[in-house]
Amino acid sequence: MVDLRHVTRDELAVVKTEDFALSESLLGVEKLISSEGGLVSHVAEISDDGAETRIFVTNMGRLEYMHSNIRKTGPNDTGAELGGTGGSDNPRHARAVAVVESIERYSSCVPPGDLPFASFHELGAQAMDVQTLPRCSDAELAVPGTVARRFDPDEKIRWTTARSLTDGREVLVPATLVWLHLPPTSASERAWMQVSTGCAAHSTVSAALVAAISEVIERDAIALTWLQKLPLPPLVLDGNDERLDRVRDEIRKTGREYRFFDATTDLGVPTVYCVDTDPNDTEMMNLVVASTELDPVVAVSKIVRESRSSRVALRNAPPPPSEDGDITSVFHGAQRMGHADLDHVFDFLKVPPRSARRLSDLHVPAGSTSNEHLSWLLKRLDSAGYSVFAVNITTREAEEAGIHVVRVIIPELMPVSFVHQARYLAHPRLYSAPTAMGYSTRDETALNHYPQPFA
Q1: For 15-24, 67-76, 105-114, 429-438, which range has the lowest pLDDT when averaged over its residues?
Q2: Residue 38: burial class (beta carbons within 10 Å; 0-12, 13-18, 19+)
Q3: H or E stretch including 263?
Q4: Which runs of consecutive H residues, i.e. helices, occur in 274-331?
Q5: Which of 226, 252, 264, 455 holds its CA 20 to 30 A away from the CA of 218?
């Protein structure tokens, strides 16, 4: 296993472990599936609309019995059940991808037991610059009963070691930015909401880092689009790519309308935003899905696949709260905003008419390996003046299955928050990025006040 704490940026660019066929690399994860003591208790296929893509889900059971930091969740005594989802034309591949996602989520819930406990001022240069992290606005923090708190540099919090991928140095970062299910030990640990963004698993470190960085960039675009109501240009799925033919066929079979938009930000990493509309479903008319991939065709394929599994999950989730201030789950905002009565909220993506862009016009970086892609991404971020921190969170179980799990933090980018009371409306990126992308910028009072519909 490659330990990120001992890998420099130059070494990351030439990781010797070569990527191999994903289907082959996933074979080892099958050993983790067992109803009697396996990390993954069971895997099941879910059906939706008869499309060719097969979708599998996994369940990991009652993890709170294994790790004391995990607390019971949900409105009933169901325990903290975690799992994963995988989709592919090949059912065995889809099943394995679901297991890998389970490994990723499990790894993000298992922190080491010796986390440093100190204030930012006590750590000094050993810690990252917390001023670059997203922060809630004074207006957000003034809302009665808000779950968010202002960070106090003199208050102690837990930290963990990360490696900067842009300058190679080792720094301490807040542990709550890395692991989930960490009950706060101080008010300052509630300055940032715990979320899975930037966590990724793959057969090589470089591929995991590419996936993690791409997800952080994707969430930045999602947050900017919704909060600033960016009038994104529509995307036309042009070209004779066989993969697009399969996507078009899948869309046709669903009977729904997929509206694709170019959400690529000033970073220049291909990002596709989509509103999946079912005019016959009043409860879930609109669903927002997005993807950042170095190959835009992969992004579109992923969106169509994930929209299917998301609709299944949302249909089976408990109903959302009636008040915006009580929205705290990844499902809540999507459920609320999916309702037909709120279809008008998506009008900023429809009018005024804008010139469409072709999918084939989106920039695809050179290179074919994950090492080359990682190098390209780091250069883009470094040239923008952004920091990239990575933590190796691979567990013993993941290592035995040949899977590497990483968490990436890019503090300057805008995060997606599923907690409506804490959307980080004071983060500078929220107001500087639209201008850099050629759009007008709204101030805080004019931002989109509706809950985030992405799930």
Answers
A1: 15-24
A2: middle
A3: none
A4: 296-315
A5: 252
CATH architecture of the domain with residue range 221-365:
2-Layer Sandwich (3.30)
What is the spatial distance between Cα 382 and Cα 178, in angstroms, rounded to a whole number?
Answer: 21
Structure tokens at 193: 């909401």
Residues in a beta bridge with 225:
none
Q: Rounded CA gap, 425 and 140, in Å?
A: 8
Task: State yes or no: pLDDT of 417 exceeds 90.
Answer: yes
Helix (H) or strand (E) holding 202: strand 199-202
Cβ–Cβ < 8 Å for 291, 272: yes
SS (H, E, C) 86-141: EEECCHHHHHHHHHHHHHHHHHCCCCCCCCCEECHHHHHHHECCHHHCCCCCHHHH
Q: Does residue 176 contact residue 158 with C-beta atoms inside 8 Å?
A: yes
Q: What are the CA-CA distances from residue 142 to residues 69, 317, 422 (Å)?
A: 29, 31, 11
Instruction: Tell me the one-letter amino acid at 228.
Output: Q
Axis-axis angle for helices 370-383, 205-227 (nearest 10): 40
- Residue found under tokens 């470094």: 382
339 vs 24, 102, 107, 322, 348, CA distance in Å? 42, 30, 34, 13, 17
pLDDT, tens digit, 9 for 90 and up, residues 152-190? 999 999 999 999 999 999 999 999 999 998 999 999 999
Query: What's the predicted TM-score (pTM) here?
Result: 0.90
pLDDT tens digit string along 183-241? Answer: 999 999 999 999 999 999 999 999 999 999 999 999 999 999 999 999 999 999 998 89
**Backbone dihedral angles phi then psi of residue 340, each to the nearest 5 degrees:** -60, -30
The predicted-structure confidence for 306-349, as pLDDT tens digits, reads as follows 998 899 889 888 999 999 999 999 999 999 999 999 999 999 99
Query: Residue type for 217, please?
Result: I
DSSP 245: H
- Amino acid, single-letter form, for residue 398: A
- Kindly state the tokens that stand for 341: 């009565």
Residue type, 166: T
**Cβ contact 97:120 at 8 Å:** no
Give the number of other CB atoms < 10 A from CB of residue 406: 28
Longest dimension (CA), the chain: 59
**247: CB partners within 8 A, 6+ apart:** 237, 297, 300, 301, 304
Torsions phi, psi of 260, nearest 5? -100, 145
